[in-house]
């Protein structure tokens, strides 16, 4: 259901995420035992496009429980900082870092709203500002996000974003072949679905969420207006979950449409640099 942005959107979303942290910690989806044993959860195209992070500083905005953040530390980043608005998520991330022997000098986590990141994080700039998948849809204002993120990129550094393609938000869930929603709407999407993507059957109480779709043109234009230079924009024909009925999981862990069906972009990634 689309509607104007409700005044309690942040509180509703925070309550939803706070409640789901222990479900994610205990479940098989994130498999924290495997992660502690060395499993790398970063997507292969992210690793290739970000490149070598050895000796670099990295800020991860909207980091949830910090798995992606800590993987960058494992890959050699000199110092990583994860930021999320959920206190339980940040406490979990700190515990994971400690269990891996990564102290605050290597991996620090901050509980704050992403729009307040410039005041909340320990350093004024980072070589890499990273945002992983499933983050922008929780924010109403990409202009403010881009300005905040760009202000934290060090000269010579870059912002890297990987996201689900907004085209997927306008297609029907059953087949992914019919347009059923407005691509250009700026209204909020209000959802009341229980459970979580990590456990659809989980018993939950805080089920109301407020989300937005952001066309790629809006995101790119916001970053350019914030003073960054677009290095590349890549579209990917894979997804991380069964977004549409026909998608099938392959051995590499990605979901794809059958070979006899025309492909559409399911994810995208971009890098934008600061001179």
Automatic annotation (TrEMBL):
The keyword Methyltransferase applies. CDD domains: AdoMet_MTases (cd02440). The keyword Methyltransferase applies. Keywords: Methyltransferase, Transferase. It comes from the Bacteria. It is an enzyme of class 2 (transferase). Residues 59-157 form the Methyltransferase domain. One of its GO terms (biological process) is methylation. GO terms for molecular function: 2-polyprenyl-6-hydroxyphenol methylase activity; 3-demethylubiquinol 3-O-methyltransferase activity. SUPFAM superfamilies: S-adenosyl-L-methionine-dependent methyltransferases. Its EC number is 2.1.1.222, 2.1.1.64. This is Class I SAM-dependent methyltransferase. It comes from Streptomyces maoxianensis.
């Amino acid at each position: 259901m689309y509607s104007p942005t409700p005044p309690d959107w942040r509180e509703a979303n925070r309550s939803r995420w706070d409640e789901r942290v222990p479900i994610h910690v205990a479940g098989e989806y994130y498999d924290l035992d495997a992660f502690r044993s060395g499993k790398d959860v970063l997507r292969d195209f992210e690793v290739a496009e970000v490149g070598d992070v050895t000796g670099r500083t990295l800020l991860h905005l909207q980091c949830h429980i910090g798995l992606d953040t800590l993987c960058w530390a494992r890959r050699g980043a000199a110092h990583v900082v994860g930021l999320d608005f959920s206190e339980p998520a940040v406490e979990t991330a700190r515990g994971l870092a400690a269990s891996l022997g990564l102290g605050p000098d290597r991996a620090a986590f901050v509980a704050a709203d992403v729009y307040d990141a410039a005041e909340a994080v320990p350093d004024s700039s980072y070589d890499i500002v990273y945002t992983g998948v499933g983050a922008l849809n929780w924010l109403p204002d990409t202009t403010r996000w881009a300005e905040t993120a760009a202000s934290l990129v060090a000269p010579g550094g870059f912002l890297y974003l990987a996201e689900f393609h907004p085209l997927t938000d306008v297609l029907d869930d059953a087949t992914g072949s019919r347009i059923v929603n407005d691509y250009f709407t700026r209204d909020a999407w209000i959802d009341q679905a229980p459970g979580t993507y990590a456990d659809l059957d989980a018993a939950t109480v805080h089920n109301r969420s407020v989300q937005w779709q952001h066309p790629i043109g809006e995101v790119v234009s916001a970053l350019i207006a914030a003073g960054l230079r677009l290095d590349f924009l890549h579209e990917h024909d894979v997804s991380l979950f069964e977004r549409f009925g026909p998608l099938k999981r392959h051995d590499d862990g990605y979901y794809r449409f059958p070979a006899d069906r025309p492909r559409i972009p399911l994810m995208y990634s971009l890098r934008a640099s600061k001179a």
